[in-house]
Here is the input.
Amino acid sequence: MANAPNLDTADFVVVGGGIMGCWTALHLARAGKTVCVIEKAEIAHNGSGRNRGNVRVQLRETVERDLINRSLVLWQNFEESARSTVEYRVTGNLLVSYDETLTADFQIEVDRHRAIGLDAHVVQGEALRELVPQISPDIVAGFLTTQDGHVNGQLATWEAARQAKLAGVRFLRGTVAQTIEYDGEKITAVQTSAGRIATKGVLVAAAGDSARLLEPLGVKTPISLALHQILVTEKLPFVTGPYLRCASPRISFCQTASGTLLLGLGPASDIAPDAPQRVEPSKIEAISTETIRLVPALKDAHIVRSWSGLFDLTPDGRAMIGPADHIAGLWVATGFNGHGMAIAPAVTESLAQSILGQAPSVGLDAFAPTRFDKPRVLEASDEPVSRIGHLGNLVAPPIQ
Ligand SMILES: Cc1cc2nc3c(=O)[nH]c(=O)nc-3n(C[C@H](O)[C@H](O)[C@H](O)COP(=O)(O)OP(=O)(O)OC[C@H]3O[C@@H](n4cnc5c(N)ncnc54)[C@H](O)[C@@H]3O)c2cc1C
Here is the structure.
């Protein structure tokens, strides 16, 4: 195929029409680059169109704090610049518990969050019931942070694509990127199902499919997949303002701008690449049962829709963002571990700045894709420890 005629040329090719691909393309085009986005299916076809839009500040890992803080500003700006709303709102996050002994852990988290300048509270009794009036009387306490937001990821991705198109980005939808070509040192082209595109720069933002393109180029991409399932209720009167999560069992839901609830239950289940992504009846049952236990008044709510989507997981829970050092012009943005929508504005801004040779607004070194080439070093933390993990899950108490 090396002698096949070029379909096109571009300064930069982006593989993946999710939020990461579309928004990075937008930044590059606005900086004057000719950019082509290759999407094998449709814009927001994958995680970016199937997520629950929780712009979570609560329990963010230390390395992601600057990204989420910057993203809160950029989401607000994006909402204001959008042709019509992407439903970005500041809602807060509320982690609740049936277990009284977790109240002390919530207090540790409140102190830890306040120490880094966040607004955080333990809420109980009346204060808790003001936030979620119909919450079960068995819920004893909540951990509230108030700066978290909520966005409609599908709308946001299409809006980023719309703005990118206006800025001159060309989109090849329904087109598969098959291989990335290089001459031993630098990128030369992307071979697609529609032909070859000559280019000196490529961003692989293909979520769980990224390994197929990157591994042949010598970029270790240890991504595994997990399937998460979502149920959607009919439009309901007010149920909750904050994104509501329970520490155990891990039922969670948000109420969207239109009034529907997006329900889910962790943990997501491991799944092999290419395995069918079904919504499992047993999971539907479990989600319904735990939702009604948490908010008994929802027993009559109708489920109107369901879907499943993939998390692309890395061994250390951090995304792979940045250059693949050994091939000039090869860039990576993948492995967002099921919480990439929240930080997408800052990730794509800083990534585009790095591609353009500018200093990034937020440093991305902790996410270097090349880190899996080296043995893993576990970092010690001197922060106080609670039994609540960084995603709000209960974790084993530390060994004394
Ligand atoms: C059910 C669910 C709930 C979630 N909830 C949240 C949440 O509440 N908050 C949050 O922050 N995050 C959440 N996430 C995670 C978030 O959606 C993702 O981290 C984010 O959308 C990742 O964007 P992306 O652009 O990297 O990937 P994707 O949106 O998956 O885009 C990758 C694109 O690449 C395309 N592609 C793949 N291979 C090729 C190829 N060879 N050629 C051309 N195109 C290709 C795919 O078709 C796809 O469209 C959730 C995810 C899921 C699945």
About this structure: The chain is about 25% helix and 25% strand. The domain at 6-51+154-221+316-373 is CATH 3.50.50.60 (FAD/NAD(P)-binding domain). The chain has a mean pLDDT of 94.
